[in-house]
Amino acid sequence: METNLKGKRALVLGASKGLGYGIAQGLAEEGARVAIASRTMEGSKAAADKVGALPFVCDTGKSDQIDALAKDVTAALGGVDVLVLNSGGPPPGKAQGVTSEQWRASFEAMFVNLVRLTDHLLPGMIERRFGRIISVISSGVIQPIPNLAISNAIRPALVGWGKTLASEVASFGVTVNAIAPGRIATDRLKQLDAANAERTGRSVEEVAAAAKAGIPAGRYGEIAEFGAAAVFLASERASFITGSILRVDGGQISCT
Description:
Layout: E1 9-12, H1 18-29, E2 33-38, H2 41-51, E3 54-57, H3 63-77, E4 82-85, H4 100-128, E5 131-136, H5 149-169, E6 174-181, H6 187-200, H7 204-213, H8 223-234, E7 245-248
Parallel strand pairs: 1-2, 1-4, 2-3, 4-5, 5-6, 6-7
């Protein structure tokens, strides 16, 4: 399938590893000019060298770094056609006892500043009458995940914003979608499995085996599989898909 992404300019947040890296790699393989952003320049450079991208630094919890990223990437690429909003996951934990400070900090990093970055880059997409905004969310938006209360509470806000924005910009050739990963084999998943093991008194191997048993595909997903889904949504072939959530979960989530 021809994606027509050659020469398109893409900015992928949280792309030094994991899901963001998989998306950046997939876009680069399709000929897109990719900018990678992560919390450290060391991480961004290492990933950028692997996929042939440009490295940038951005902590989504800091609005000044969001503003600088929009300015620097625009200067380097001349604009952004594909924007992938991928913030780091918050620490695992229950809904009880989360401090107000933690709620505010997570909301800034996982919602407010992602919207801020989009507002910087969206006018160029509208002017060029082409744009792809893709939010990496969580299957917890559809079916809350135990012990991930902060993520379960905040990521739905990004979905509601995205669906609303989608209807506002569709006539300009700009689509706004979200991808909900299931259990994809990343360092983040290892962290969550380890936390679950500690919380329940089981081994990590037992936790992973039980999780895989609940996935119809019988395994964890691969980073490249997730990246491929994002590449499709970024492509011209996906021009009639907007305001949607694409689940990449091996059939794990049974509700819609």
